[in-house]
Fold this sequence. Notes:
Largest sheet: 8 strands, mixed
Distance between the termini: 45 Å
Amino acid sequence: LVLPGGAGGPALAEAAGLADRVATAPAPSARPDAPALLAAEVEGVAFPDWATDFGWTATGTRSDEIGGRRAVTVFYEKEGRRLAYTIVAGDALDAPGDPVVTVDGVEFRVVETSAGESVTWERRGRTCVITAPGTSRDAVIELAAWKGGGGHPPLPAPAERRREVGGPDRAGLEVVRREAEGQAPAQRLGAAHRALGDLLRDQELGGRDAHAHGA
């Protein structure tokens, strides 16, 4: 389906309005290499698999075009309620108003549409929109902010790892474990010590940098 785009690009309300439509294709399956993600994505931004952690099960999908941009929607259901998660290709759409909350540096905004209240935010420069009638705003933001997968690589390369200053770098510790696997015991211990030393040193430097910038 092709929907018209507003002046200056597709309107955010048009993307959120896709929640009113029906699925036209089956639900994507879970990715075998990343169980927290579904095998559906838009320009590198993957849809999350919320079934295990939140009970929201993917039930279908559809693909539309808004103002020349591809927009993919995955529909989820839980206890009779329906949720639509849309990702729009291209540069992020203009979002009206101030963010209602900021989680880990990500700003979440609310837009009113024909389908009700929608929560929108950016992930990797792409606009994401969730519309879930009958589900509280806080619950929707919790889903959107979940870091179990949706839109994030399950295990970034060491040079690309993102760390939270003051907290454990779980991705880094997982890399230490994986780098040590498949080696002889002595080599495994030495590799683990070296990798862990590098990880702790990087975190210390990261903490100093954040403090210097007033974080």
